[in-house]
Here is the input.
Amino acid sequence: MLSRPYAYIISAITLVLLLGGCGGLQEVWEGPGARVFRPQSIAVLPPMASQYDSAREDIQEVLAGALNRQGTIERVVSPENVTDIFQASKEAFDSLVFYFSRLEMTGQSDKESAIKLGKALNVESFLVVRVNSWEYVRKEGDNVGRVGMSLRLIDATTGTTVWKARHERSNSYMFVKPSLKDIAKELADEMIKYMPPQPKR
Here is the structure.
């Protein structure tokens, strides 16, 4: 029979392995109100500027699709409508630019501009996206298509961050390159699964 300290260590290791298996995403953070957050509407903001700007429209589209498939939020504003709002309203566009610049500088959601964005988009929440990778690379001797992104869920009624996550997905190939948009779709579905509000069990 194992002595008590060893039994504790084995229990702890087992718990870590179980949590690691269930965790799924590379990084996840939940705010204090994440478990009870129940917005009825959401919009996906245009992804923040990065070296992968060519992927912005595809990423916005696949995330909106993943939110619709998840079905836990009643109304998902289409990327086309989001673009139309920012093109039609200088105030909304200025709020977006200011919000992104504050986020880049401080790493925090600027509450005032977040609330303005929520009102302009007529939503209770929105998703901030950064594309971290969108490329074909050699990885451990294999050819892979790789897509990575960071998501931040914002309560547009208070401007606070509810949830954040980062993850990446790679598909290996020999001759025919996989579609990066298809990889992004799989990644979006996987990440949205962990985002509040969780489906009722």
Q: What stands out?
A: The CA atoms of residues 80 and 130 lie 19 Å apart.
